[in-house]
Design goal:
31% of the residues lie in helices and 23% in strands. With 644 residues, the protein is of the alpha/beta class.
Length: 644
């Protein structure tokens, strides 16, 4: 798999990074030595991270790590008491420069901009926290948050954490059923929602969805409504409360929380059955997020970060806390990233001086047909880097972003981890060269490896991404389901976290995520990730997107089936399907030639643009579909069901 770098860091850039400067203060001359030390002694490393971030402790911890229940249930910063709000907001109160700095810059789809400084955010959070206390929310209670990407979403999360309660976010595009399921499973007492938001110029109603969800969950006592659009909505006297009525003046002390106390539940969509409620704590999640954002992605104090995401996905809270812990600014945008024109994101970068832009491969693939003119019309000189997570890259969109948008100067910082990780397992550092679609390191403190089916570490072949030691930020199990947590991640090899990603790496240290390991193709004993075949398909000028799955075959055990979305100007035809089959066979060998190519109008994907191959496979084979609540386009599933 040996890959050829296309971006090399200058000595000047390396020496300017926070990671390099910290590494040198710790006494390391080379990144390799530093990384090895970080996994050789994880207690030393994560204590060094906590010290570097200047975490505030109400009560100092007595021990960095204890394992009374084994590696599956690590206890970090034992005996320490803290609160993430003390570190995200209150620690900056003595710094007038930070107090005046924007914590949040919000832009609506219509172009309205609102800026909230660190001082204003701290005061706002205190008022909402006091209101929640007066509403009867106590330490440990759960609060549902169903909001678009508006400032109130950040305020609600921080206010809940400040008083020691626990929030669970729901994706702003959900229908009523998945919202209700999360509220019921978390046993939430209150739901905070909005009247709606706009996407592509159309109103997306949220209060009506929230009402249907709450009607299914009798334990929800109150619904707090942000009048974001000031539209007429159904109102339930006695249950519904306006957001401005929730805000209460007066002092609200920040709750002293144990290091292991949870502040957030994030639900991940299951392959089959119900979602999993990952539990995150006041010390774990924010410290890991702050390190990954601040040191791996090199976000400095005062930098501006814009990540195309939603607070219902892990990247929303991760970027928020990563920015606040590093005295940076987060840009929130609640509209479509290509509305009214394909340059909307580039205009956001120009208007707000964005330094780090987080995006997805699918977003870039969608922009490519519009050409580079939309990029060239915007001033992107503030950008220092791109960041990406959530799905594997194909070479063509990666190179388009690198060459056409970044002019071969801006690094693409790929990171992969997940909701259960609080950040990344493998990633990209600016201290090393970068090759297309790859990761150039396991993250410091993450003892990652690639195992074959027999649990042996392998190079240059697809295997299972694993982590061999616990880390700060590891989910504290699944809410009310400890056995399911152990079964999901710890059941394959003893005391080894099996992440579920099919991964390969070469002897030069470049890693590639091929897809979910249950997506991995095994054709006549040849194992490969679907991304490799999909990359070949999308290199064809007629192919916009593709997804490859494996289906049972009597002779080969499994054969590839391809689903293709065509570019404008191309029409489905038998000869085009045959051409694509031959194209794959020519590149990978005749034994890996797809059995069939199906043309579809759309592929099932999440709002964060992740293509759901497992859903495609289940629909095509008429298997149990599992949880579909995160899909943005559920109608695409029925189209695939009807193909056979």
């Amino acid at each position: 798999m040996l890959t050829q770098p296309v971006w090399y860091p200058s000595e000047e850039l390396i020496s300017s990074t926070r990671l390099y400067q910290w590494m040198r203060r710790l006494g390391f001359d080379s990144y390799d030595e530093f990384f090895q030390a970080s996994v050789r002694d994880i207690r030393w490393f994560w204590q060094a991270v906590e010290n570097e971030l200047s975490v505030n402790w109400f009560t100092p911890y007595r021990s960095v790590l204890e394992l009374p229940r084994g590696v599956k249930w690590p206890e970090w910063f034992v005996g320490g008491q803290t609160n993430l709000v003390a570190n995200a907001l209150e620690k900056w109160q003595s710094d007038p420069d930070v107090q005046r700095r924007p914590a949040i810059i919000y832009e609506s789809e219509e172009g309205h901009v609102r800026t909230v400084t660190y001082r204003e955010l701290a005061s706002w959070v205190e008022r909402v926290a006091r209101g929640l206390k007066e509403l009867g929310i106590e330490r440990g209670d759960r609060v549902g948050i169903f909001l678009p990407m508006i400032p109130e979403a950040a305020v609600a999360m921080l206010a809940v954490a400040k008083i020691g309660a626990i929030f669970t976010n729901a994706f702003s595009g959900f229908a009523a059923d998945p919202v209700a399921w999360r509220l019921e499973h978390a046993e939430a007492k209150v739901l905070i929602t909005a009247d709606g938001y706009r996407r592509r110029g159309k109103v997306v109603p949220m209060k009506e969805v929230a009402d249907r969800a709450v009607d299914m969950v009798p334990k929800v006592e109150k619904v707090v409504v942000v009048p974001h659009l000031e539209r007429d909505i159904p109102w339930n006297p006695g249950r519904d409360i306006r957001w401005d009525e929730l805000e209460k003046e007066g002092n609200q002390p920040t709750e002293w929380m144990e290091s292991s106390d949870p502040f957030m539940l994030i639900y991940t969509s299951g392959t089959t059955g119900r979602p999993k409620g990952t539990v995150h704590t006041h010390s774990g999640f924010p410290i890991k997020a702050a390190f990954d954002i601040g040191y791996m992605l090199d976000v400095k104090h005062g930098d501006v970060v814009f990540w195309i995401t939603d607070m219902g996905w892990v990247m929303g809270p991760m970027v928020l806390l990563g920015c606040l812990y590093n005295a940076a600014t987060m840009v929130l945008y609640d509209g479509s990233p290509d509305h009214p024109n394909p340059d909307r994101v580039w205009q956001l970068v120009e208007r707000h001086g964005v330094n780090l832009l987080g995006l997805s491969p699918t977003f870039i693939r969608a922009l490519m047909p519009h050409g580079v003119e939309w990029v060239q019309s915007s001033d992107l000189s503030s950008l220092k880097a791109f960041a990406s997570t959530g799905e594997p890259w194909n070479p063509e969109p990666w190179l388009w972003l690198f060459e056409k948008v970044g002019k071969k100067q801006l690094p693409i910082l790929n990171i992969s981890g997940g909701t259960e990780i609080s950040g990344g397992i493998i990633g990209t550092t600016m201290l090393r060269p970068i090759a297309p679609i790859t990761f150039n390191t396991a993250l410091p403190g993450m003892d990652a490896d690639v195992f074959d089916q027999d649990g042996r570490s392998v190079i240059d072949q697809v295997g299972e991404l694993v982590v061999k030691q616990p880390w700060v930020g590891m989910t504290r199990g699944f809410w009310k389901e400890p056995e399911r947590f152990e079964e999901t991640y710890w059941n394959r090899w003893k005391d080894i976290w099996a992440h579920g990603d099919a991964t390969s790496r070469d002897k030069n240290g470049f890693w590639i995520i091929q897809g979910r390991s249950d997506d991995t193709l095994n054709v006549a004993g040849k194992r490969m990730g679907p991304a490799e075949m999909e990359s070949i398909l999308v290199e064809h000028p007629g192919v916009k997107e593709s997804a490859v799955i494996g289906v049972p075959d009597e002779i080969k055990g499994e054969v590839p089936i391809c689903f293709v979305v065509l570019n404008q100007g191309y029409n489905p035809s038998e000869w085009l399907a045959e051409e694509l089959q031959e194209r794959v066979g020519d590149h990978l060998g005749k034994s890996l030639k797809p059995k069939s190519v199906y043309f579809v109008d759309d592929l099932p994907k999440t709002r964060s643009a992740k293509i759901m191959r497992r859903v495609i496979r289940s629909a095509f084979l008429n298997l149990e579909l599992g949880d579909l609540s995160s899909l943005e386009n559920p109608e695409s599933v029925n189209l695939i069901k009807n193909l056979r």
